Amino acid sequence: MIEAIVTDIEGTTSSLSFVKDVLFPYARAKIPAYLQQHADQPEVRQVLKEVDQIAGESLDLSRQTQQFIAWMDQDQKITPLKSLQGMVWRDGYRQGAFKGHVYPDAAKQLQTWKQAGLALYVYSSGSVEAQKLLFGYSEFGDLTPLFSDYFDTRIGGKREAASYRAIAGRIGLPADRILFLSDIEAELDAARAANLQTYWLVRGQSVNIDASHPQAVDFAGIHLQ
Does domain 4-16+99-221 correspond to CATH entry 2.40.10.10? Predict the structure, then answer.
């Protein structure tokens, strides 16, 4: 019996185009000025320290900024980059530059599951900060009360089974009572290797009954039995 559901964001609850066409360009444009203005703030100092640790040397702010931009252009899932993006997006959300995109079927089903007593969690390569902002400033209002906790790459990579074992440990349930939702097969493979149940979101496609994981075109098509 499923007692908890962990959901991915991009391509699962939310449109890939929102992240790629709205959030990423906004962050890329704003990061240089943001670092100049906020370099002395503790949370920014921390991500700059992490950049130096990855580089293996102490970089000046100009080179640190260049590194963030290079990682963005390479679509790298680097933790300090994800943290910085979350900070920049926080300003954007608060200023009303955009609202977090959530598919209507996802918003409705998440609320239904919550009312049914299921515990809901988020696991995304975007930082926990970015996750909370997307759902907190969503087109459906503040959806953060639906979720019990959030996980990002600080717990491990999304294609590593150890990450899902760690998540199951944090949730405190046997892994086979947890369902993981994603649009990426390799992530689902890793979750299944950790003994989680899985569902593959294939939005805009047809369901393949012979696929390696149960498939659904939207949240309404997910069957928990």
Answer: no
